[in-house]
# Entry
Amino acid sequence: MRPEQIVEATLFASQTPLTPAELARADESLDETQVERAIEVLRERYEEDERAFQVYQLGDGFQLLTRPEYAPYLERFDSVPRPPHLSPAALESLAIIAYRQPIGRIEIEDVRGVSATSVLRTLIDWELIRVVGRGEGLGRPLLYGTTERFLEHFGLASLEDLPPPDELPVALGESEPDEAREAEPAAPPAEL
Amino acid sequence: MRPEQIVEATLFASQTPLTPAELARADESLDETQVERAIEVLRERYEEDERAFQVYQLGDGFQLLTRPEYAPYLERFDSVPRPPHLSPAALESLAIIAYRQPIGRIEIEDVRGVSATSVLRTLIDWELIRVVGRGEGLGRPLLYGTTERFLEHFGLASLEDLPPPDELPVALGESEPDEAREAEPAAPPAEL
Amino acid sequence: MISGSTKPQAGSPIAIGGESFVVELDRFQGPLDLLLHLIRSQDIDILDIPIAHITGQFLRAIEEGLDRMPLERAGEFLEMSATLVRIKAQMLLPRPERYEWEEDPRAELVRRLLEYEHFQDVVHVLQTAEAQRGRHMAKGYIEDRPPPVISRPQLEVSLRDLLEAAARIPDPVPVAQVRPPSATVTVGEKVSLLRRLIGKAKRVALERLFKPWGTRAHAVAALLAALELARQQVIRIEQTKPFSPIWLFSLATGSDRSGSADTGADGPELESSRVGSGIEENGPRAAGAEELS
# Structure
């Protein structure tokens, strides 16, 4: 059995993204590098053969998903309930957290001009954000950051897929905390 | 979009076998004959390309499944469908309904202290509870009670078989696993 | 919402002055959102906001919607109007009194507006990403046809599980507890209890004087004690509406202990950080290989 066949079978059987490490568990002969190479092989084959699905990267994981152009056909079927679209309030807080993490509640409220308590609870319940630590200062406030699930929900391979702040229409003068962005080499685009 | 691509997307996205008639619902341009031809095309391609999956016929439906030779790899994952179990929250609500029926959502939430909406839906989906009437008062709230299936599932002939609330500790003590009891030094037989 | 009839589209010009000024307050995420809308929809240079003009519009926009708003939200809009009015006043100060190195009173507001606008761009990015992700379907997207009841997998829940859950149900609040007749209760006891409690807190719920005992006799004694101390002008009794809690306020002078209800908001969030991926959330369905992990 070739590595890409084993990886294909495993990706095919899973309903959630799997990391290379998880995929490698399918066989002793596999390691993460081989898995990643296998994924590349599969991607190229699916592309060439014009398969209706492709391997996409979501966070650290990979998942077989249909290509977007098939959505209109599939939407004709009764589908399982999918995560709801986020409310503007939730999106606003999430946007701030995504770009400023780790960040505390007070700072989020300062930017939004409104209370964020209940929104934060919702985002935590949906596992889109989590507590990543505690800040300095009075009461050592909880600091929030985004989760793997956040990346999955928005179809992002990593936070680097978000445009850098200065490329947004309204760029901010002050520099953003984004050391993380430079640290890792960009992963191959997920094509999402 | 070629018919076999639409059929492939649909087969891929579906959890259960779909009949040609169901598959044809994906697009007006498709009829059952075309679907069947598309399935043939896919089968040949998957065979040729040595894909890890194939289109299998199950009853009068078709489903994409991994080939049997990949089972050993997939079995390494925790993927065998396990019988579903009720979450503690669902169980708790079920217990409240069993003992206090007919009872409304608000009263259940009062006891549990948290929202019961989704739990109630789950219990209704499992046909363990049903709406038995409407209460007095504001909005005439729905009242829930247990079903026949509830009795069947828990092996009860009737609701009277449930131990009265004040005997619960005793009832639970009695149904302690037998080994535990046998481990205790048994009272010495009278004859010794 | 100020007026339900016309829904202004984002970016549509707002009629200035007169009756046609229609803004749905509910539509805005908060004061910054509203302010930004006023600025954008009138092609105002954000770096040179005509403060008097905008303040007037802002005040009029919130005027009507305010009392229909929950207190917390209303407070957020009011805070902004206070800021605007303050800036307006500062702008009116005669020039000579303001030094050159002094910051434009509008600077902080402009910074906040720009920052808020920036994150609106991010919101747009996220919305687009979310919509795109929604066009990719995973295996299992097409729903199971609900299987006939007979073929449903057996739930893995035993009667013991159910009874254990039942044992965890708290008892209903007893209507009246049977007490041995010897346990008499006197108004005097309640008076000294109340005096002790009111010494420590500025206000005490009447309930606290009898709830632990739960009998009618205690409730009556507590009420009589409260009335007695009220007569002696030690406390004041307050109830906001029928059947709401009865509060006993100390009339002794002391530090103001206005509540701070919102402070501990961060606490319980940790606990709720995992919401089950289990059956409760998703309802029953044939488990695929979803548990691969």
